[in-house]
Specification:
Layout (H helix, E strand, L loop, with lengths): L9 H42 L4 H30 L3 H12 L7 H16 L1 H4 L8
Helix pairs in contact: 1-2, 1-4, 2-3, 3-4
């Protein structure tokens, strides 16, 4: 499959934006699911800390995991935003991959199928040609 090398006209750009809209919103939903589970994990973890049921190593590991999961959720959110605006192809792809990988996202039930769908749409020639930072 060859990539278009022409700059897309306004109709093609509008069609690509419409095509990328639903997968981008899917990434937003996956990030929202991630942050809901992150709030639940943080609440449980905080209640265990308050009760004194954690030692120092467990406290450090838990805090590092919460920070990591927060950053990975922001990557998925930024990927959805980039796909929606067709700004940065690299950020959009990174967000798609982050949504698909278990362990990076807390609960990839929505993230895996949406990440695959968004990646397929982002890599399609018509959408790829409309990204602002693509290699010319």
């Amino acid at each position: 499959m060859s990539r278009p090398v022409y700059p897309p006209n306004l109709e093609e750009r509008a069609a690509a934006r419409r095509r990328a809209m639903l997968p981008a919103y899917g990434l937003f939903i996956a990030a929202g699911e991630h942050f809901l589970f992150l709030c639940l994990v943080t609440a449980i973890y905080t209640s265990l800390l308050v009760q004194g049921q954690r030692n120092t190593e467990q406290t450090i590991v838990g805090a590092v995991l919460i920070v990591f999961w927060t950053l990975s959720g922001l990557v998925v959110l930024a990927g959805g935003l980039s796909l929606r605006r067709l700004n940065s192809y690299g950020v959009a792809r990174t967000g798609c991959f982050a949504a698909m990988i278990p362990g990076v996202t807390i609960c990839p039930v929505i993230g895996l199928p949406v990440g695959i769908w968004a990646l397929v749409v982002a890599c399609s020639p018509d959408v790829w040609a409309c990204f602002r930072d693509r290699k010319r």
